[in-house]
Amino acid sequence: MSDASHITLSDDERTRCEVWTRVMGYHRPVAAFNAGKQSEHAERTYYSEQPQAAGAWQQGRRAAA
Question: Model pTM?
Fold first, then answer.
């Protein structure tokens, strides 16, 4: 990527992103939480599952047998 194609926005050009989360069966914006709940939301850890290759679970199963 060259410097010419790099876009820089000033603060007044940016749009605020509203974050929503699921709480007790329904969705709410995090901005509507009280300070304690916002702090709890900030401390959450997120993970993503890594997709397994086809048949990988069978190889692990054979090794355990």
Answer: 0.46
